[in-house]
Design a protein that fits this description.
95 residues; four-stranded antiparallel beta sheet; alpha+beta; 4 strands; Alpha-Beta Plaits
Length: 95
């Protein structure tokens, strides 16, 4: 099992309930593919470094999780098609 960090940026027009639902959905993807969520860091609404599709801010979340090496590929393929996600990135953490 390796440690990973998932950075995900949600659309700025989501209300609190929708944000919570989308975050829960991402966490379920992690557990569905054999991972365990270690920590969720909510950075709130922030300005993007550059404009993406005429959007210049979003809700930032950083999720630390532990999983085997096949899980990130599966999680990315599910997050990629979520309409509420502007950007995402999964990185492997050094031990």
């Amino acid at each position: 099992m390796k440690k990973y960090e998932l950075a995900v940026v949600f659309m700025p027009n989501l209300d609190e309930e929708a944000k919570a639902a989308q975050l829960e959905k991402v966490q379920k993807y992690i557990t569905r593919f054999g991972g365990t969520v270690d920590n969720v860091d909510d950075w709130g609404k922030r300005k993007l470094a550059y404009e993406i599709d005429k959007i210049n801010e979003g809700y930032y979340y950083f999720i630390d999780f532990t999983a085997d090496s096949s899980a990130p590929v599966e999680i990315e393929s599910r997050i990629r098609i979520m309409d509420s996600v502007i950007r995402y990135l999964i990185i492997a953490k050094e031990d």
